[in-house]
Design goal:
Bound molecules: zinc ion
Structural class: mainly beta
Strand order of the largest sheet: 1-2-6-5-4-3
Radius of gyration: 20 Å
Number of strands: 14
């Protein structure tokens, strides 16, 4: 199921975008519980079709059993994710950035692909936008502070193009969802009803926005039995303000 389609705009110094990237989010769900892992089959299908596949070791000990991989074909990239024992595989895919007028290279990150919060100063480029990373700009030597330490790196993000969510508390709304702050434990969640499958709950969550109005978020999920029902849980970090977001739903047993 195509859960969401959207675009990321790419800008330089001016607020007007100079380029666009298209993205999609696909969810594939299986109703059995506990569900056998499917991400291996999905990744194998990409590999068979000639995509370059890379599997990632999970670095989050609080989500045992989740799996991640990326599949790449030319400039087209897909992130494959499966939560623990969940029978829900998500595919987030994106095209390269297309520029209608300019001839520019690919930025290291756009809002949806940044593994963190996009740098406000350089919009993910990682370089000073006054001199576009060159030691000498259009009007001579650029006065960016980074220029003294190396040609034109962005000072705010040290050339990385992104900040870790912890590093940008000033971007967060004072009250996150449910009054949560971004540090430490995930926010407390109200368990909701109204869905009959993990995929259906995910489709709902993917349409919701953060209190900062941003919807982009890498959702991780888990599904576990709780008495005579299932608990479907989603959590992630807002791509806009870095606050932690979480939702939970009760589902009937299949
Ligand atoms: Zn920056
Ligand atoms: Zn500069
Ligand atoms: Zn936010």
């Amino acid at each position: 199921m195509v859960v969401r389609e959207w675009t990321d705009s790419v800008r330089l110094r001016d607020p007007a975008p100079v380029g666009l990237r298209s993205l999609f989010l696909i969810g594939m769900g299986w109703d059995a519980h506990p569900s056998p892992s499917k991400s291996g089959e999905v990744v194998a299908a990409f590999a068979e079709a000639g995509w370059a596949v890379r599997r990632h070791a999970s670095d989050h000990s609080d989500h045992d059993g989740e799996s991640r991989a990326t599949a790449r074909h030319e400039d087209f990239e897909v992130r494959v994710y499966e939560g623990s024992g969940s029978g829900l595989v998500t595919l987030t895919g994106w095209t390269p950035v297309v520029y209608p007028e300019h001839r520019l290279g690919q930025p290291p990150f756009t809002l949806s692909t940044a593994d963190g919060v996009l740098c406000d100063a350089c919009h993910g480029w990682g370089v000073c936008l006054d001199c576009e990373g060159r030691p000498y700009g259009r009007y001579g030597r650029c006065w960016c502070a980074a220029n003294n330490a190396g040609p034109g790196r962005c000072v705010e993000c040290a050339g990385r193009g992104v900040h870790s969510p912890r590093a940008v508390p000033w971007k967060r709304p004072r009250q996150g969802p449910h009054g949560a702050d971004a540090e430490g434990a995930p926010p407390p969640v109200t368990v909701e009803a109204g869905h009959d499958s993990h995929l259906s709950a995910f489709t709902d969550v993917a349409q919701r926005t953060c209190s900062c109005a941003e919807f982009r978020c890498f959702w991780r999920n888990s599904l576990r039995g709780e008495g005579d029902r299932l608990l479907s849980r989603f959590d992630g970090t807002c791509q806009g303000c870095g606050v932690r977001r979480a939702y939970a739903f009760t589902l009937p047993l299949p």
